[in-house]
Amino acid sequence: MTNYFDDLLRDVNGHTGTDDLWAPPSSDFSTWAFTMKAAPKKNLSIESNHTQRYKTEGKVAKANKTATKVGYTHNGVKLGFGMESEKISGSVSGTVFEESDWQVKGTLSGENKFAAKE
């Protein structure tokens, strides 16, 4: 009996053009995003965002992504630190050596990606 109504609804949806509502195409879309940026001091910046995404491939999968970044500058040296849902990262950059006619700039950065859940 259930198959009869499923077939009937499928036929009606096909005629009214609402098939996509019941079986959405494969897609990846964001439902909402929240972003906050602040610079409490001249040499300090903070940024945080949270995004909720949905992915449909036969079934709906929900993913929440969060990212926070902090930047700090002191005596010409830039420090950066970031944490995301999948990784953590850091960086340091600035002038290592400076003479009157030449200079050496350096950057050190790294990141660690977390292992996937098993």
Structure in words:
With 118 residues, this protein is an alpha+beta fold. It has a domain at 33-97. It has helices at residues 2-16, 19-22, and strands at residues 27-41, 44-57, 59-74, 77-84, 87-98, 103-113. 0% of the residues are buried.
Kindly list the characteristics that best describe this protein:
alpha+beta, 6 strands, about 120 residues, six-stranded antiparallel β-sheet, elongated, single chain, about 65% strand
Short description:
The chain is α+β, with helices and mostly antiparallel strands and 118 residues long. Helix content is 16%, strand content 64%.
Based on helices, strands and strand pairing, what is the structural class?
Answer: alpha+beta
Mean pLDDT: 82
What percentage of amino acids are in beta strands? over 45%
Q: Helix content range of the residues, please?
A: 10-25%
The number of helical segments is: 2
For the CA atoms, what is the radius of gyration?
Answer: 25 Å
The low-confidence runs, each spanning 5 or more residues with pLDDT under 50, are none
Overall geometric form: elongated
Please count the beta strands (DSSP E, at least 2 residues each): 6
User: Major sheet: order of its strands?
Assistant: 1-2-3-4-5-6
Largest sheet: 6 strands, antiparallel
Order of helices and strands: HHEEEEEE
Q: How widely separated are the two ends?
A: 40 Å
Task: Describe how the helices and strands are arranged.
Elements: H1 2-16, H2 19-22, E1 27-41, E2 44-57, E3 59-74, E4 77-84, E5 87-98, E6 103-113
Antiparallel strand pairs: 1-2, 2-3, 3-4, 4-5, 5-6
